[in-house]
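Thread: Newbie trying to understand structure tokens

Hi all, I'm a second-year student working on a class project, and my supervisor (Dr. K.) asked me to get a predicted structure for one chain before our next meeting. I've only ever worked with sequences, so writing a 3D structure as a token string is new to me. If someone could post the tokens and maybe explain what I'm looking at, I'd be very grateful. Here's the chain:
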Amino acid sequence: MPEPTPVVSVIIPTYNRKESLLRTLDSLARQTYPADRMEVIVVDDGSTDGTTDTSLDRRLTGTVLHAEHGGATAARNHGASRARGCVLVFVDDDIELEADALAQGVRLLQSLDHAILLGTLSLPDQRVSQVLVCGRFEGVRAPGTLGEVAEVPFQHCMTGLLFVRQPDLAQIGGFQDPTGGWPNWDDVDFGYRATGAGYRLFRSTLVRATHWDHVSADLRSACDRWYRAAHAGARLFQRYPELQGQIPMFADKGPVRWGEDSVAIIARKAVRSLASSQPAQALIRWFTMILERCWPNFSVLTHLYNWQVSACIRKGYRQGLREMKTS
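---
Reply by user tm_fold:
Sure, no problem. This is what the structure looks like when written as tokens:
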């Protein structure tokens, strides 16, 4: 029988987000989970904005570790190596947890065997933020539900709020960087390796948090992020060729594979190519500007944002493929 109230280690990698980190720590200090059964490990990944001087809220027990800048993947593993809890909770430094998030997450994880639990993140600006993740998850269906949690495929794995038993993390092989640099798809990589090792992924709507993503209200920043993510996506498929076709956001972004692509995919790629052209994007940006000024709540705006982000995804992915061919 698992202990009723296990020791939980909350691991937060952070880099140059001092104010955001303080909000995350404050939300942890307000958790209903017993304070004497929780430790917080902040891993400062070589920050230069004063984050290094951050100390834990006096309501929290734990430590701040300092490391040379090596990326969030290495920071998560470093924090896990110093954790004493049998349950590890990975939280990004721009996440604000609801008061019962840890308690609910630990309870649900204890009810599952060979499982990893994901929380449900909401975004404060839904109008722009919806485009940040919709391409990645579009067409990826959850195969079933189990009481208060829903089972999800590996593509849904995200490290913003993730619960895993410490022995299971070791069994899976920790977090790995499949592409080099950031964004590096280490969350999808972790989910893929976990399911390959026989683990199941679940998400619960009872484990809630707000994701204060700094690009959530900035379309230009969103486009830049997804360009870089798509650029790295080419290297993800180089490492895992079998994932081709399993990440929906890339389904209609690559070159036509004559003899392999269906007529429907070929048609989608043609439409995507046309919509991503410079004249089409200029027209979309002009129309977006007009609607933002005159009808800012008009639902068509979400589609226009999505077309612009999708064009950046296609551009980044194609550039990554070209670089791989010449390297």
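A couple of things are worth pointing out once you decode it. The two ends are 53 Å apart (CA to CA). DSSP finds ten helices and ten strands in the chain. Feel free to ask follow-ups in this thread.
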